[in-house]
Amino acid sequence: MTSHLSLLPFCFAVLLLVACKQEASQKTSSKQSRYATTGKIERFHPLLDSIIAFDANIEILAEGFEWTEGPLWIKDGAFLLFTDIPPNRVMRWKEGEGTSIYLTPSGYTGEQARTGEPGANGLLLDGKGLLVLCQHGDRRVARMNAPLQQPRPEFTTLADRWDGKQLNSPNDAVFDSKGRLYFTDPPYGLEKQMDDPFKEIPFQGVYLLQPNGTLDLLVDSLTRPNGIAFSPDERTLYVANSDPNKAIWVAYDVRPDGMLGHGRLFHDATSKVSKEMPGLPDGLKVNAQGIIFATGPGGVWVFHPDGTVLGRIDTGQATSNCAFGNEGKALYLTADDYLMRVWLK
Predict the structure, then answer these.
(1) What is the value of pTM for the model shown?
(2) Domains parsed from the chain with CATH numbers
(3) What are phi and psi of 173, to 5 degrees?
(4) pLDDT of 120-137, one tens digit each?
């Protein structure tokens, strides 16, 4: 049950923010006129007005891809990277320049032709600013051996096996402040997914890669673990489960040693899964205030840390992932064959 008392401080903040930031909202609105817009922003709680301007739109920045994923804002250079998984490539988008191919191959480096989703999925930066990729086709988490400004398809494997068995297809990942890497491993990168004859691990796991290279299994009970992110204090790890029959988000307590403690249901959206609301719990990000932006049925769900649904960014598409950019002023969305953006307060 939602604790309404926990929302009171935010409600007072809303009254102040709405009154004093109207001018900033108008400036935000002027930025949005450069692109075509789509969808709608559904508001279920007044707190959302302190996060997304009341007149904000969903901009279409680029389109014509096959299945976009893994958005990652690169501050040094002010550009966005994202994956186009079926054609096995990472794309680059920059304001005023549009899109271009950044890296290919991105997830499958073998020579034998293959189908399915061979490209990279989740993207992130390590502590040295190097690109780390969840490589579906190669069934590993790897680091690109090149600077961001001079990409090359040369990789070092960070994790590809657990208990002597090859991973399924690492999907999304997050580092903590101590350099520990947490990642999910559903079957989506396998050509026949659950029925693939080369699938070696019978479950879909959540793993912890220690800085010394040790790979620990954290969770084996989720049917389709997918998006993953920490709360600001790193005491909670959120994991999305992209199973249409169990479309949920789970919150796990994080122990001081990095292992996971109690897991609890954060939100269940199974009843919302439908043709009218495309998409499943997939990628998610958490801002500095603990607000969770999580892709799910109907677009991007916006949650208060106590689980209250504040609103939903309805893109009209199956939305795979999201990322903050522009000093936290923008939320970039990958949705089916589109790249989109919503300006934030």
Answers:
(1) 0.91
(2) 39-343 (2.120.10.30)
(3) -155, 160
(4) 999 999 999 999 999 999
